[in-house]
């Protein structure tokens, strides 16, 4: 879950207060909100409001630019150094400030107008990439400058992610869980498309126009996103409950931890559960999937690229499919969604126990991974809004920042463990253990879902 993973905010008017009040689930918690007061005369869906359209457009354009830059930089570093590990190491290092600073980004998101923060961060990202482009034009390729740029972008992302995650419930809390999930489904769809397009366009554009034009595309994308976000109507968070004295950032973080551990432990348990699922998922998809295709099955980079592209398309399809059911999804469906996740992993392991040819094993592996990605879209669409809607307005930024930090911490550990496991055990064993872990998770989350549902 990373600026990549990330983004939500929206509308202003519910179509019916009665519907929002009678919806089951954590959305019924009566926390104060700083969103525009509901207007009972509004007949149109909040999902087609100006604010939501601006939000979706801004986030989609910003993410597209960010992914284009990452793709272009990876190609440039590979061309200049001949090593794919160099840029991967830079990205790995850049996750450290994201994890450390993300909670403070949540504190800021609960203090300032979230629209203002988003505009400032996208504008700063555009200025940073522009400054880097000037440096590259003067000195040429410089790996240190690339590292500084990527780490700085990660720092900005650490502040933007919790801001966006807090803005969506601020805009839609009054509309109830169903509308909230529909809004998040739209955001997920745009994010998937914005992440997938650079994979198809990046190689062609880089070969045709080179790194400078690709950086110009990124600068333009960040700048356009900042301009669009200027017109989103979003009030400052309501801090009246804190009295005249504004708590220090450390006090704010302590208040967020107290809320998770004492006031709403079920929310904390759900966040831990999501991090555990992330640990398993990232490990076997980011490490095991390419390793199995290239090393175990012996296919070349072209076959892997096509397979990875199919998984990306499945992610887009999953986001749209989950969006169709968004209004009907509730936290009580989380165990079933995780169980489906486990079932999609099972055939991937079984096929490597059978005496089949590599092409058949590849087909089952890719089909299973596509199904897993679709199941993950449903799991994500249930879990994240449950946390957002179970959190009071004044703490949404902090809580979502801690949630993101937990999930990000799980990623490198999952990658290291799965890298160790794939080096020592058969592919079938690793995948079947992963399926078993997901199945156990589907049982473990049942009491958590029941507490949040009630």
UniProtKB/TrEMBL annotation:
- Tell me the organism: Bifidobacterium aerophilum
Q: Where are the transmembrane segments?
A: 52-78, 84-105, 126-159, 204-228, 267-289, 309-327, 334-356, 362-387, 399-421, 427-449
Q: What name goes with this protein?
A: MFS transporter
Q: Which domain of life is it from?
A: Bacteria
Per UniProt, the ranges with Low complexity bias are: 12-22
Q: Which GO terms describe its molecular function?
A: transmembrane transporter activity
**Location, primary (coarse class):** membrane
Gene3D superfamilies assigned: MFS general substrate transporter like domains
